[in-house]
Amino acid sequence: MTIEYPALADLWDDTGCYQTPSALHGWLTGYLASGARLSGEAWLAEAMDYLEIEEAPGGLKAVLTELYGQMLKQMQAEDMSYGLLLPDDEEADIDEQVECLAQWSKGFLDGFGASGKVSGRPDEEVLEVLQDLDAFSQAQIEDVNDPENAQLFLELAEHARVAALTVFYAFNSPAPKAPETLH
């Protein structure tokens, strides 16, 4: 099952979640990128806290559990298939898309910090991408009619995706490869 933004947004509305799916996705990405991991129960507790809900119905719990596993798998994949959970232009206008990217970026920084795994100053490349994500968390559309907005949004979203993977690769050891068998 692939988790997509429209289905999550509907579930969030039905459940009364305070944060957007993009914000929670960013939080989990930042948390995992730091090298930290959560048990299923701890993840559900963190997600509910971040979403500011007291109790999650079974459907939301199942989706959150799937989201965690899916994201970790995508981030670890050699094909770099990881992608940000953002609405596309059929689901939202450009200012909402940019707002979700800003929320994703803030969520990433929140999750990265909440992990408690990183102490001291990160290397320059990681520091630079964290600063980029901090800038993205302030992103806004000044002129919704500017025809360049859509292209700029796609470029920023791709930059944020690569930034997340850069941090992930800096703090996570690659999975050991199976030894090759010679015949």
Description:
The protein has 183 residues and is mostly helical. The chain has one domain: Up-down Bundle (Four Helix Bundle (Hemerythrin (Met), subunit A)), CATH 1.20.120.740. Helix content is 61%, strand content 0%. The chain has 7 helices and no strands. The protein has helices at residues 5-15, 21-33, 40-51, 58-76, 94-114, 124-136, 149-171. The longest helix has 23 residues, at 149-171. The radius of gyration is 17 Å and the shape is globular. The mean pLDDT is 91.
Summarize this entry quickly.
This protein has helices at 5-15, 21-33, 40-51, 58-76, 94-114, 124-136, 149-171. By secondary structure, the chain is mostly helical.
Provide the descriptors you would attach to this structure in a database record.
61% helix, Four Helix Bundle (Hemerythrin (Met), subunit A), 183 residues, single chain, 7 helices, globular, mainly alpha
List strands and helices in order, with pairings.
Layout lengths: L4 H11 L5 H13 L6 H12 L6 H19 L17 H21 L9 H13 L12 H23 L12
Helix pairs in contact: 2-4, 2-5, 2-7, 3-4, 5-6, 5-7, 6-7
Largest sheet: none
Order of helices and strands: HHHHHHH
Number of helices: 7
N/C terminus separation: 37 Å
Mean pLDDT: 91
Name the CATH superfamily assignment.
YgfB uncharacterised protein family PF03695
Give the CA-based shape: globular
